[in-house]
Amino acid sequence: MHNLGDLNLVNLGIGEICFKDSPLPVSKDIGSHDFPIVGKTINNFLPNNREHRVCVNKKKMKNLVATAQTKQRDAGATRKSDIRGKIFELAWKLKRDGRSEETVKSYVSRLNWLTKRGAQLMDPEDVKKVIACAKGGVSHKRNISLGYKCFAAFMGIQYEQPNYKPERKIPFIPLESEIDALIAGCGPKTATLLQLLKDTGMRIGEAAKLRWTDLDVEHHVVNVNAPGKGSNARSLKTSRQLVALLNKLPKKNQYVFGGVHPRSSSVTFSRQRRKLAAKLENPRLMQIHFHTLRHWKATMEYQKTKNILYVKQLLGHKSIENTLLYTQLVNFESNEYHPAVAKTVDEAKNLIEAGFEYVCHHNDVMLFRKRK
User: Fold this and answer.
1) Whole-angstrom distance, CA of residue 326 vs CA of residue 85
2) What integer best gives the mean pLDDT of the chain?
3) Omega of the bond prior to 262 within 30 degrees of 0, cis?
4) Which of 67, 119, 152, 294 has the fewest CB atoms within 10 Å, i.e. the most exposed one?
5) Is the pTM of this model over 0.70?
6) At the top level of CATH, which class does the domain 176-324 belong to?
7) Which part of the chain has CATH 1.10.443.10?
8) Sign of the CA dihedral 249, 251, 257, 261?
9) Dist CA 319 CA 313 (whole Å)
């Protein structure tokens, strides 16, 4: 109830205002918006009734409500625009600080994820609430929280990061025969990509940035000149099979795989993998991802050489602690092997390049084996 002189004003809804204890007739403009008020008797049959109903110009009232709603929307849009601007400024700061493009994109992606779900980035408690209600696992929540932690530090906001600690599981290590089945069943481009990851243990992001000038076909060497996640550049040996597959790829541009984003390659591979798993009736194939081949390569090389420093160099790690996460001490004693025999040096050389390991000499021949 608002006082207007000696009148008590009660708002009864849009277009209706009631005056109490008001003499008849009432006709005057009131309010800051000059709404014309016209007095009407509520019940003319009651002589002692002194209450009157008055009609407000509904058109002006509707315009007032629409104007208020527009101002509210504009204010919300301005706040969203300000937040987007701050995210953009953070991205440029990270870029100037020497962060990789993948890192910058990941932070921006996590902050955009929060804003799309209505999180108020200037309110850390509201952000915590949105993250806690996320449907993803602990790793997903931890990544989102790390992204916001970077934004909070940039904005000078005090943010106590929630304790999201995902349990590290032993990665799935497939059989080599299962990897080869995928390579044989996928399309030419995907098969070449899988063979490259199997031979070298590269990250999918590193493979996507591989240029034709990074290949030394004559010596079967691939140079990783665009290492990911702050890793070291390195030269990696490849198989003849990979060289043959690479020679069949069309050279559309400077990139070996056409500059396609890794996410697009992953979608294509997932579709082909699902068909092969059903065709071969082997559900284990569904557990093989691009990064699985990096784990597989590190595990196999460590089992073969027992040299953790060599594996560290192979993967491009700067810290040996990261390498230890990739080398799973799996017992392969019960696994079966493919035997092979070489009578000449050239035959032995071809077997070694194909991944066979030398066992011994017998009756003037060299025996080799390769884990199935």
Assistant:
1) 39
2) 81
3) no
4) 67
5) no
6) mainly alpha
7) 176-324
8) negative
9) 10
